[in-house]
Design goal:
By secondary structure, the protein is an alpha/beta fold. It is built from eleven helices and twelve strands.
Length: 276
């Protein structure tokens, strides 16, 4: 990495629970490619102040994670099509003081689904209704899945999300209490299983996991969540949060730098990001 200098471009992330994943991913590639960039993770209790700082200090870009994906909408200048359609932001790019918002989560999920040649008619159960859930459900509709049920603790948000894309809503007691069975794919878009207080939680009952052909957990850290571990034991196909975060980070990297990464470069950066 070059010595810090006045011309170095700075990218940051904003999250309630910062990790080193994005920091190591981006900085590894800056170093490998000889780019005059640096990336640093932050948390904040003052989102408007943080966004004003991005603009005032000329920071090049910002990755946005929970719980800021929706709150940041009113603080940017331009909503790119993916962020506007989903009403959720995970990336902000600063072009001479103009802040443009994107949602690379949507593109990453759509890419992961498309690569696997999945049965688009299989029943899918998605648990969650927040900003990332919006990207996931939108990606399922974009790819062509026809039978998706959204289950959420926040019933109004979950029902609104399902109805927006022509899907079905169910309460947690209905979907997880034994009333619904036979889902081909289970998708966790909640913090259940994330490192920290929810680390040991299993987001779906074992009976549903045993029936599923594919298990998809968007949690990036740890890479092997209780859901992924249970799916592996049941012999199901896996889509992990580690894959999704690497794909979306590669799209962010191109937005910040203008450089498209190869699959090999993405894999190398992803592996490096998890070494510590």
């Amino acid at each position: 990495m070059p010595i810090l200098n006045k011309d170095m471009q700075v990218c940051i992330s904003l999250s309630a629970r910062p990790s080193n994943l994005g920091t190591r991913f981006h900085n590894y590639l800056y170093d490998e490619l000889g780019l005059n960039f640096i990336y640093k993770a932050f948390s904040t209790t003052d989102l408007p102040g943080a966004v004003a700082g991005i603009r005032a200090l000329g920071l090049r870009g910002c990755s946005v994670s929970m719980p800021f994906k929706e709150a940041i909408i009113d603080l940017v200048d331009v909503m790119e099509a993916s962020a506007l359609a989903i009403e959720s932001v995970n990336t902000v790019v600063n072009d001479d003081g103009v802040l443009t918002a994107y949602n690379t989560d949507f593109e990453a999920v759509a890419t992961a689904l498309t690569r696997r040649n999945l049965d688009l008619s299989q029943p899918v159960l998605v648990r969650g209704s927040g900003g990332m859930a919006k990207a996931v459900v939108a990606a399922f509709r974009h790819v062509g899945f026809t039978d998706v049920t959204v289950v959420a603790r926040n019933a109004p948000a979950g029902r609104s999300l399902a109805e927006k894309y022509g899907y079905t809503f169910a309460t947690e007691s209905e979907a997880l209490g034994g009333s619904f069975r036979g889902f081909g794919m289970l998708v966790n878009v909640t913090p259940i299983g994330m490192a920290g207080a929810d680390a040991d939680g299993l987001s779906f009952p074992q009976a549903l996991i045993d029936e599923a052909a594919t298990v998809f957990d968007v949690i990036a850290f740890p890479s092997v969540t209780p859901l992924i571990r249970a799916g592996e034991l049941a012999g199901t196909q896996m889509i992990s949060g580690a894959e999704i975060i690497a794909l979306q980070a590669a799209i962010q990297f191109e937005l910040y730098t203008g450089i498209a990464l190869s699959d090999e470069q993405v894999a190398q950066a992803s592996a490096f990001s998890r070494e510590a």
